[in-house]
């Protein structure tokens, strides 16, 4: 083993070998992979080897498409077969709701270039003769599903990496690591020490243990996963003889099972409800190519359904039962990217669908390391979506929930209950008393809407307008006609101060910095000129600033901030729940707040985008003259010990003004009719400010800011796409995001978010349209649950297009 390497990849499963190959392919040939045993010795060797391109996140689906395409590349390069069987597959729907879900998945695939097809149960029977078509409402066919040989695929990737100059060291466990002052790493292994500029944790079953060597507790947990192999089946032989092909793969959502051909029989795997974690606290280092004890009783309910849906299985003998551990993150997606606060430490773990996602994970991470950017929108896989709030027990509960729901529908208005409530604010009980229906954002409870009674405080899950619809409408009316009160503690809040704060922020952000006591809206860009943030920046006084942004992205943005902090002169903190907030919004909000403060709040004395610190009643608060509702309003930020008193004061003093609590769903409806975008939907790292309509918040006259040169090139080249607001001729269902936008019989864009704008009484969609197909006067269609609905571009916001209410 050599003494130095540019990158040390820890773990020799399919993910580690993919990262190694892609780094070497990108030109970083001084890279080394260390594996504690043999290649594939963790979860990879006993994987079922299935692959597919469908994913709930279309950006992850793109990387899954790439993964399937990669296999031919590494076969040709290495001469090692991947055992690729591109059989095609059917996803079977047993209910109308599941058929709706498949129609939506098929629609997403239209703009991803996928070739799926919605088919009848009879057609599914023709393609997959083992099913009983009477059990199903229909299906979706995907020609790019199949299975492969896990051992051959991993070795093809490893050999391809070696051919490009990478090193692989086997039977050599990493036992410790320590970081030098320059950010490089001293790694101790069983075969000696190695100095690495970068570490990549691809530890799989041991990712937690590798993370703990540097004080990191990754939110991953291994679950026992079973599949069985049948004896040879005459039905399989008949299909092979009649078609000259293998039996295609099948995924049965109601049975929670998947199948494929294995030799002359079939493989059947389950995601059972009675799921079982494995090695919940620590993974033993001596666990090798072992299997776990099978437990047919645990999967019996799934098998019972499976025998009804696939009658031939009931007569088949079982040749072998495989029970092995696979790791999962709480939401089932991989954990990929750099770790905040740990220079040159990267992760690629929790990749439970390794043969669907491993290639894309390796490509994205290698791009990130070599070029400073993953080259794709990988938010759904970014490790920064989890933070310090994630505990071992919380991870355990959420992973078990995710596993048990693997093949279940997640409705757009469905909030999952495991490990809740977990994080709450001081007014949580006040909101419970007022019949709040809560959502979970980064483990924090926040109100979605308020029901008229405790018995009604629950969502009826649906793809269509549901029981919350009239109540959200009433909340919107309260804001537009009087005054509404919203908790905003789930926003991210950052404090920046010090003699170097102004210069640092001026370089970090493309907009001009505000004067003292003022705020500005500003995006944040990466070096490629793409959107990586959307903030309100306030200057409290002199060199003291505050930034407000998306709570979802707090870890993501702190990672970016910290990596660019100067060695001295700038103090940065994320307040988290050390600063909590309430927002009052609506035409009566100024009157309400004026009753409680000893200062003039007129539009001349405290204008739009003003920011100051003063007392509200007896409570010290930061007050900003802004709201995301697009109406007159104020954001009030206080220490947590003051929030209950502030809440009680506002509700008491606003009673005669008809003050009403409103939640996140009403806020969404209000921002849609103002054409306000949101982080992770309209604003993501694949869009420029020119495309997203944020160019008015960019000062190209500034001589230097991150991304400036790329931004100017993008401006001169012209936008590839344009963000637009659509009014949709919807019936009983509104867009939820990722629906295709049609014009003249072609898909020309995609929806980013939407819903019903109650005040404007319109179904609204925000989405991107290809620049060449953008015409404000043209008719469009947006596909909602398999049906194209007419849509038109709104030339201006539906509510208060001149902003007089917001500024007045």
From TrEMBL:
Which EC class is this protein assigned? oxidoreductase
Keywords for this protein: Membrane, Oxidoreductase, Transmembrane, Transmembrane helix
Please state every residue range assigned to the domain named FAD dependent oxidoreductase central: 371-424
Location of the Aminomethyltransferase C-terminal domain: 721-800
Q: What is its EC number?
A: 1.5.8.4
Q: Which GO terms describe its molecular function?
A: dimethylglycine dehydrogenase activity
Q: Which residues form the FAD dependent oxidoreductase domain?
A: 6-367
Any stretches that span the bilayer, and where are they?
A: 7-24
* Stretches assigned to the GCVT N-terminal domain: 427-702
Family indicated by similarity: Belongs to the GcvT family.
State the protein's name: Dimethylglycine dehydrogenase
Q: What is the lineage of its organism?
A: Bacteria, Pseudomonadati, Pseudomonadota, Alphaproteobacteria, Hyphomicrobiales
